[in-house]
DNA sequence: TTCAAAATACCCCAAAAGGGGTATGGTGCA
DNA sequence: TGCACCATACCCCTTTTGGGGTATTTTGAA
């Protein structure tokens, strides 16, 4: 928590240098309550940078080279509980939202957000108010309420496991071998997945998965 | 071509608002030879915006909603030959580089580039010098030298078209209908694509395409 | 403890995908 | 004027996928 007067120090972790620098420039203006004190471009540089500069807040991308943002968020929460983490990502990783909230992540912004949203998010977070992008709240808040969305899309962990392998380019026989299952079982799971997602072939599954950011 | 004194006007087309705005801020500094005169966030807004503001240069993302950047580049080249196009993308779309050069695109930057590279690229382009990211040149310079890479990956435009439809979740019969082709023709193209990419099924194609960022 | 799922696994069958050919007309380059 | 490549389209064949069932065991929550 930071008083009104104090300027919040920020570490930006994003491998797209132009985006990273652009963010810094966006946050650097006359009277800005923020100061970007460090920028890193690799997942493995985040923790060392926090050690060095001890920022109030980390703006963290999910897709980072060398180390995954989710993983980093976990370590920050356990090793640096006073450092606020705000995820900034291209996608609505809906399936991560609950996990991120559990970890204690303070905010989630999309790269398609506006400068105003960015500022609002950071100001809320520095006041101790969590700020999650509306497109995330809309769909994921309903996940633990028993509505249509649940009935349509709620997949079992086995089904999710198989979806991931299918997306990785494994054919049914290969998945069966990998999971020590009969091909028939994998086929059954695949049928159930298609039924639940209301799709009819692999290509549509890939599309679905991309859209949901699984 | 623009004289040293004139300030180059720029249109930025990128759906990630924070990136788009960040770019504008990066290009806006004391004595900057550039001026961002318009920003759009959707592929379908690019051509109308060019009509309106007639920029010297368009900074164009490849992955735009509603309309593909490659497609837009083609139209800009034919309808507005005086407008320079610089691609700015997350990925090294190596397979597109020859195509982009043929179209007459003046530059290709990665989002992981630095501000210095961005400035250098734009200055070169405004002097009439093409600027393609080094990681593209490294691999694509060999593209017209008849080596293995060419034989493995160089896809025809028809093949690319079919890849895109396959990735969108269309089955062979649907693609055939959409392109007014025989199913057999689509099958032939698909076979040739798989041969060129050394893959053996749709799932692997999807993976390949994701990795290459098409 | 009972009941609903999830996970397992099989049946049958049609459709599509995948892999091997061949062939023909067109286009662009040397 | 070739030659290479592209786009088109067909043949044959096997494997995989997709869609409809049914059935057993395990597991977790009421």
TrEMBL record, chains A, B:
GO terms for biological process: phosphorelay signal transduction system; regulation of DNA-templated transcription. Keywords: DNA-binding, Phosphoprotein. Transmembrane segments: none annotated. The modification 4-aspartylphosphate is found at residue 61. One of its GO terms (molecular function) is DNA binding. Residues 148-213 form the HTH luxR-type domain. Residues 9-126 form the Response regulatory domain. SUPFAM superfamilies: C-terminal effector domain of the bipartite response regulators, CheY-like. SMART domains: HTH_LUXR (SM00421), REC (SM00448). CDD domains: LuxR_C_like, REC_NarL-like. Pfam families: GerE, Response_reg. This is DNA-binding response regulator. It comes from Larkinella knui. The lineage of its organism: Bacteria, Pseudomonadati, Bacteroidota, Cytophagia, Cytophagales.
């Amino acid at each position: 928590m930071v008083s009104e007067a104090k300027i919040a120090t920020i570490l930006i972790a994003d491998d797209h240098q132009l985006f990273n620098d652009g963010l810094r420039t966006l946050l650097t203006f006359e009277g800005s309550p923020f100061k970007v004190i460090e920028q890193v471009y690799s997942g493995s540089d985040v923790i060392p940078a926090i050690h060095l500069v001890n920022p109030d807040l980390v703006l963290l991308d999910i897709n980072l080279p060398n180390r995954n943002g989710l993983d980093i968020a976990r370590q920050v929460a356990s090793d640096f509980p006073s450092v606020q983490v705000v995820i900034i990502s291209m996608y609505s990783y809906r399936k991560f939202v609950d996990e991120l909230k559990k970890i204690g992540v303070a905010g989630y912004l999309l790269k398609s957000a506006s400068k105003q949203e960015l500022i609002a998010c950071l100001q809320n977070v520095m006041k101790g108010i969590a700020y999650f992008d509306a497109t995330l709240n809309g769909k994921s808040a309903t996940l633990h309420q028993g509505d249509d969305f649940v009935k349509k899309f709620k997949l079992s962990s086995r089904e999710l496991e198989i979806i991931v392998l299918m997306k990785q380019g494994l054919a049914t026989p290969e998945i069966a071998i990998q999971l020590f299952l009969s091909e028939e079982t994998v086929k059954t799971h695949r049928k159930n997945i298609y039924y639940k997602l209301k799709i009819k072939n692999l290509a549509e599954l890939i599309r679905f998965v991309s859209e949901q950011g699984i």
